[in-house]
Amino acid sequence: MPASEKGVRSIEAVGRDAILDAVAMLREDGVRLLADLVRIPSLLGQEGPAQDLMERVFRDLGLEVDRFAIDEEALKKQPGWSPSLISYEGRENVVGIHKPHGTSGRSLILNGHIDVVPTGPEELWSAPPFEPVVRDGRLYGRGAGDMKAGIVAYVMAFKALKSLGVQPAAPVYLQSVVEEECTGNGALACVARGYKADAAVIPEPFNHTLQIAQIGVIRCELEVTGRPAHVLDTGAGLNAIEAAFQVLKHLKTLESAWNHPDGRHPAYEHHHHPYNLNVGHIEGGEWASSVPTRCRMELRFGFPPGRAAFNVSAEIERAVAEAARTDPALAGITARVIFRGFQAEGCTLDPEHPMLEALDAAHRTIFGTPAPRLAQTCTTDARNFILYGDTPATCYGPEAERIHGIDESVSLDSLAKVTAVLALFMADWCGLEEIS
Ligand SMILES: [Zn+2]
Fold first, then answer.
1. Are residues 189 and 228 in the same domain?
2. 186 pLDDT band (50/70/90 cuts)?
3. CATH number, domain at 29?
4. pLDDT reported for residue 310
5. How many domains does the chain have?
6. 331 and 251 together in one domain
7. CA pair distance 423, 121, nearest whole angstrom
8. Residues 28-48: what's their mean pLDDT?
9. Do 130 and 30 belong to one domain?
10. In angstroms, what is the span from residue 394 Cα to ligand 1's centroid?
11. Is 2 inside any structural domain?
């Protein structure tokens, strides 16, 4: 036997039932870790304390830890970079590195984002968003589903294998990254640092589906300037808030064109309206008695896979310039577009990819039926691995409700099942070897 295969154990020798029992034994451990993570409000810019916990978790698993700051200047030169919203000070990525004794299997990246989206009005929540509550088999709290449960799932899957005296027989990288929700620069920084593998799995809360496509997403600000005036003669002014809504009408024609069934990307041919334009934030004017001079809208565009982000942003700019030039309702106003946040291209994965087959086999062991394939209508960090990291990537994670909404929750049964699927998949994909 070659030295590299010393101590190799097949998944059959270890036993699938033994792996499932080991996962079941860790269920309460997992719920505790999830509650601990939800309790830390890792909103954009405040990810540091949650990353401290992830560093401890990775060390407790016996992993080497690579905690590194995001070098924004270097990252700007990287394809896939999105203009940041805030500084990266105190917001590192944390990677737990498993190095096998010998490599007989295929390497794997397990990636999750630690950042969570804003809570919305807290008084609408049944319980405060960062005080986790378990009710009717679900854990409630901001980030519970998106995607702290996914992080818990890959941690517990790895721990379950170790509890049986075995470990993956290939390098495995457990990544906890910042800023997935508005740029994806956290995962991109992992790619830029050289992390790649034979497969990457991101346990986003997509209800046990296997992601095979995701759309592109661009975020930008539309800034409209009008002319101030006293409201005794509104005709003397140009109302920037009303003008911004008029520009928005023109931008909606882009959305309609991209969603037209003719020429729609094949992965989305059964979707009624995959590419959505959302006004997420608006600011403008000063008070009720002046015609407002300025209005700023934050916009998010979805667009088809296969299109370069810079072409789409140029199309948006052209549409705004054209509207300002030709629409009489906009005469005299100025409008400009500032691109900040996601400049994220869409991507696809071969539905027959061996990683998907292996995940599907693990899924069938637990659920008895094949995992549905998903063409997702948002973006995820999978694009960074697929497009820029030479690493095939998919999402497979638990069932969650009201992510990005009020009273977000995740099913704890579903979390246990995803943990089991990931443990079986890791054993199969990476192979197993004795720890000592
Ligand atoms: Zn997410």
1. no
2. very high
3. 3.40.630.10
4. 96
5. 2
6. yes
7. 38
8. 98
9. yes
10. 13
11. no
How many angstroms is it from 302 CA to the middle of ligand 1?
16
Centre of ligand 1 from the C-alpha of residue 380, in Å: 7
Instruction: Give 144 Cα–ligand 1 centroid separation in angstroms.
Output: 10
Please tell me whether residue 261 adopts helix, strand or coil conformation. Answer: coil
Q: Are residues 359 and 311 located together in one domain of the fold? A: no
| Ligand 1: centre distance to CA 151 (Å) | 11
Expressed in angstroms and rounded, the spacing between residue 205 Cα and the centre of ligand 1 is: 7
Please tell me the distance between residue 81's alpha carbon and the centre of ligand 1 in angstroms.
18
Would you say residue 298 lies in a domain? yes
pLDDT band at 424 (very low <50, low <70, confident <90, very high): very high
Among 394, 397, 414, 426, residue whose Cα is nearest residue 159: 426
Is the CB of residue 408 less than 8 Å from the CB of residue 139?
Answer: no
Q: Are residues 333 and 363 in the same domain?
A: no
Query: Quick check: 24 and 160 in contact, CB under 8 A?
Result: no
In a domain, 66, yes or no: yes
pLDDT (tens digit, 9 = 90+) per residue, 24-33? 999 999 999 9
Measured in Å, residue 231 CA sits from the centre of ligand 1 at 45
Is residue 183 in some structural domain? Answer: yes
130 phi and psi, to 5 degrees? -110, 20
Domain that holds residue 398: 8-214+346-434
Q: Is the peptide bond before 147 cis (omega within 30 degrees of 0)?
A: yes
Q: How far away, in angstroms, is 19 Cα from ligand 1 center? A: 27
